TrEMBL record:
Domain Chemokine interleukin-8-like: 30-78
Pfam families hit by this protein: IL8
SUPFAM superfamilies linked to this entry: Interleukin 8-like chemokines
InterPro entries found in the cross-reference section: Chemokine_IL8-like_dom, Interleukin_8-like_sf
Protein's name according to its UniProt entry: Chemokine interleukin-8-like domain-containing protein
Signal peptide: 1-27
Gene3D superfamilies per record: 2.40.50.40
């Protein structure tokens, strides 16, 4: 009986740690402020490896586009998507 109670207690502790850790990571993943897209230089936009849309109707408080540039996250507004599209189109025409 004592082993069963210890096992249940251990399971509850591990579950609590997992929940707290995952919540903390999710909170860190949200953009808290954004840089206006017009302030991001073209040379940085060329280096974007991927982007992600953050929606305020989800778990985050603001709408944003997260740009991944050289393993760093840069939060900006949705207008950057038009700039990225034009840049990609321009680069595909060049070659």
């Amino acid at each position: 009986m004592e082993l069963k109670a210890t096992s249940v207690l251990l399971l509850v502790c591990v579950t609590t740690i997992i929940i707290l850790t995952s919540t903390e990571v999710d909170a860190i993943a949200c953009c808290l402020k954004i840089t206006p897209s017009k302030m991001i230089p073209k040379r940085m936009l060329v280096s974007v490896s991927k982007h992600q849309i953050q929606d305020k109707s989800g778990r985050c408080d603001i709408d944003a586009v997260i740009l991944f540039i050289k393993r760093k996250r840069h939060c900006t507004d949705h207008a950057v998507l038009d700039r990225l599209k034009r840049l990609k189109k321009h680069r595909s025409i060049k070659g």
